Amino acid sequence: MSPLDLEVLQSARDWLRAGHPVHLVSVVQTWGSAPRQAGAMLAVRGDGRVMGSVSGGCVEDDLVRRAREDQLGTAPRRLNYGVTRESAAQFGLPCGGTLELVCEPLRDPAWLDEVLDAIRQHRLIRRELDLETGTARLLPATPADGPCLNGGVFRNVYGPRWRLLIIGANQTARVLCAIAGTLDFHVIVCDPREEFFADWNEPQATLLTTMPDDTVLEIGTNERTAIVAVTHDPKLDDMALLEALKSPAFYVGALGSRANQAKRRERLRLFDLSEKEIERLHGPVGLRLGSRTPAEIAVAIAAELVLVRNALGGAEMGAIPESVMADGT
């Protein structure tokens, strides 16, 4: 869940408590080149004030008009935009894109409090809304769960669906924490060196001071976990990479020049890693942006994380162009 979607839920709760009529609009499904993904949300007040987004803007304009004219209804309902070519053009949906939305009038802020509390604890939670009766319930969720509409029941998942483990609490890690948090990652930073973690104060990340190789095992690394080593200390980076490359993590990367990466791969060959496992290492880490500063390197790493993560749901991993892979940072 992105920070924007978190703001949607917070705003909806606050507006509701202040006495405003509020509707929560969620993207159920998209076809073609619709701008937002399933699960994206918009909160709209009765006076037309909005928070969030479900499209490029024109659909929001129509929802605002409906809210001001009290046309969004008093019961949950499905809304469709762009079903025809003319409708797609009217609402700014490119290439015949289509949006299916669920629009729900909000009455009780209690479930919003529960969801927001779960998000603060980095827990996934699923809400199931019966469109016929308007009743809803909250259940634990897994990263594999996603938004869907099935048999008149709309299910949406709230909370971070991906994790990023950063080895090293340095400047690059600080910037990467901030960026990754906006990209739907629950960020964990691991550094056992007191001189580095003593002044660490990044509220958007969970700090662990255990040994990195132990941490990779203890956090339950899975297919929705990325691991990036940025300490420049082989004693810490290499031990974490040994476990990371054997894990199901969808991305494993390490900071360092091409020459240092070649040396690292030689060291890894001394342990019980196969060539296939070693080939999983993204090193030098990040897209080839000519990065030099910690901030630029963090941007390059975040960009590659997005590229590889999106490839999981589309093109095969081997389709990532070599021309945009890591540079010699």
Structure description:
The protein has 329 residues and is an alpha/beta fold. It has 2 domains: 3-158, no CATH class; 162-324, Rossmann fold (3-Layer(aba) Sandwich). 34% of the residues lie in helices and 24% in strands. The protein is built from 11 helices and 15 strands. It has helices at residues 3-17, 58-68, 85-90, 110-120, 171-181, 194-197, 212-218, 234-244, 258-268, 275-279, 294-312, and strands at 22-31, 41-45, 50-52, 77-81, 98-106, 125-130, 136-140, 148-150, 153-158, 162-167, 185-190, 205-208, 225-229, 251-254, 281-282. The strands form 3 sheets. It has a 6-stranded parallel β-sheet, with helices on both faces. A 5-stranded antiparallel β-sheet has the order 3-2-1-5-4. β11 (185-190), α6 (194-197) and β12 (205-208) form a beta-alpha-beta unit. α1 packs antiparallel against α4. The chain starts with a helix and ends in a 17-residue tail after the last helix. The model is unreliable at 314-329 (pLDDT under 50).
- Would you tell me the structural class of the helices and strands? alpha/beta
Low-confidence stretches: 314-329
CATH architecture of the largest domain: 3-Layer(aba) Sandwich
**Average of the residue pLDDT scores:** 87
Number of domains: 2
> In CATH terms, what is the fold-level topology of the largest domain?
Rossmann fold
Strand content: 15-25%
Written as H for each helix and E for each strand, in order along the chain, the element string is HEEEHEHEHEEEEEHEHEHEHEHHEH
Trace the largest sheet across and list its strands: 12-11-10-13-14-15
Number of helices: 11
Indicate the percent of residues in helices. Answer: 25-40%
Report, as a whole number of angstroms, the end-to-end distance.
Answer: 30 Å
Q: Nearest-angstrom radius of gyration?
A: 22 Å
CATH class designation of the largest domain: Alpha Beta
The main β sheet shows up as: 6 strands, parallel
Number of strands: 15
Label the overall shape. elongated
